[in-house]
Amino acid sequence: MKKYLILCFILVVALGSVNAQDKDSKHVCKDDCNHEVTFAPQKGDFTAAMVFGRGAYINGGLIVPSSISSSSTVSGAAPYINDVDANSNSITNMVGAEGRYFVKDNFAISFSGGAILRNSPAQLAIPAVIDGGGNTIIQGYSAVVADERIDVNVSVGGQWLFTTKNNRLFPYVGFTLPFDYARRSLFDPTVTVATNGDVTITDLGARHVDITAFGVQAVAGVDYYIAKDVFFGFDIKPVSYTYAFSMKSPGPGLIKLEADTNTVSFFAQFSFKLGFKF
User: Fold this and answer.
1) Looking at residue 23, what is its pLDDT?
2) Residue 89 pLDDT more than 80?
3) How far apart are CA 166 and CA 84, in angstroms?
4) How far is CA 92 from the centre of its chain?
5) Using CA atoms, how far apart are residues 176 and 242, in angstroms rounded to an integer?
6) Which of 225, 224, 231, 217 minimizes the C-alpha distance to 267?
7) Residues with Cβ < 8 Å from 194, sequence gap 6 or more?
8) Of 6, 7, 131, 151, which is least packed with CB atoms within 10 Å of its CB?
């Protein structure tokens, strides 16, 4: 429900801006002059848009190897390009932002991206203090597992705009070069001592998995200006190719397990945009 309220709020703000700009554009000149509103982007213009659709982060297959003390096998799961999916695509899901700079009236450089960085430092366990009768004098504290998470996606491309008989409608075609990186890393500093004196060390060092992906995509879309500097847009990727590879490390000095995936999609990615021109 919350996402629908946010989307409605954005639409109300956009329509309010439209009404204000339309009033400004309808004033009457005393002398002969031309105050016709020009909607077409021009050289030097910059547009910024909120993008709705499916997320652009690639993090499918980020399975950190289990510690040696709990498993003897490293998972062979290959990276999964989860920004291409046959289902669960929602237009109400805001996934990021896109910027375009027009180096010519009909050509713009596009760029988009985002990053999420999380890091939880490790803390050693503190054993409890227990008296001879088995009563706890001071509570023990469990270890805090170090948890590092990185998700990055960046895309750079170009778009060619075309004019139509409708001075508010501007179709475009182009390309984009996406790059994605994701990492998950765990380190459990827990050390246990059995009643017979055996010591179990959970991790000697960090376990981690990395996914790196890059590719090329064709882009086709259309922008419709509802006011001089406000537009709605829709685009789709007619053809998209992505190569992704992952490396899993179960610990320092151990052999890394590598896996890769090639993904080709046709008309499988779309996005809806609400943008502004500056």
Assistant:
1) 47
2) no
3) 33
4) 15
5) 12
6) 217
7) 200
8) 131
Q: Which two tokens stand for residue 74?
A: 């490293």
How far CA 200 is from CA of 40, 66, 109, 147, in Å, comes to 68, 15, 56, 21
Distance CA(4)–CA(116), nearest Å, equals 24
| pLDDT tens, residue by residue, 143-152 | 899 999 999 9
Q: Give 40's Cβ-side CA count (13 Å radius).
A: 17
Best mean pLDDT range from 75-89, 120-134, 247-261: 247-261
Which residues are registered as beta bridge partners of 98?
Answer: 49, 112
b vs e for 32-57, b when ≥16 Cβ sit within 10 Å of the residue's Cβ?
eeeeeeebebeeeeebebbbbbbbbb
The alpha carbon of residue 220 and the mean position of all alpha carbons in its chain are separated, in whole angstroms, by 20
Q: How many CB atoms lie within 10 A of CB 11?
A: 12
- Contacts of residue 53, defined as CB under 8 A and 6 or more positions apart, other chains included, come to 89, 90, 91, 93, 95, 269, 270, 271, 272
Chain length of the chain: 278
Structure token pair of residue 39: 């909607």
Nearest one of 164, 169, 167, 180 to 84, comparing CA atoms: 180
Cα angle, residue 229 at apex, residues 226 and 231 outer, rounded to 5°: 40
Specify the 3-state DSSP secondary structure of 127. coil
Residue 243, both tokens: 């190569």
pLDDT single digits (tens) 41-59: 899 999 999 888 877 788 8
Which ranges of 105-206 does DSSP label H, i.e. alpha helix? none
Q: Alpha-carbon distance 58 to 156, whole Å?
A: 16
| Cα 98 to Cα 231: distance, rounded to the nearest angstrom | 13
What are 105-138's pLDDT values in tens digits?
Answer: 999 999 998 888 999 999 888 888 887 777 888 8
Residue reference for tokens 């200006």: 225
DSSP state of 135: -
